[in-house]
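WARN retry 2 of 3 for item q-0093 after timeout on previous attempt; input resubmitted unchanged.
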Amino acid sequence: MRIGLYPGTFDPVTLGHTDIIRRACTLVDRLVIGVAINRDKGPLFSLDERVAMIEAETAPIAAACGSQIVVHPFENLLIDAARDVGAQMIIRGLRAVADFEYEYQMVGMNRMLDKSVETVFLMAEARHQAIASKLVKEIARLGGDVSSFVPSGVEDALKIRLEL
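OK item q-0093 returned
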């Protein structure tokens, strides 16, 4: 069974994330969405809220692609999370050259920690390349329209959280 791990904080999940998830699930039999518990980032949404949003948004994707999609929170090293879920590959989304520079360093470190886990990069579709959760939250906080950046359920959650 081919198992891939797609990690991130997903605060909130965006259309860029779901684009990568949709394409990643065609590469594996089981795609684990690793939701990072990163207390330093001070997420807008709680872990349970992020997990619920991802589960809601990925259920139709899993049904369409035929792969199993599972959400798995983690707080340890990424390579250890990959081992925990039996992943042979880590899937990372790229938006721009700046992403690649950081990811290149991560791959090198992960390879030193465990050579058996490969990293696969997927470029977000052009229309999603500028989308970043941080920017989505800023636009939403300032009353801007985020409907072209996030799924409708996430847009509703942002409005409720930010009392818009």
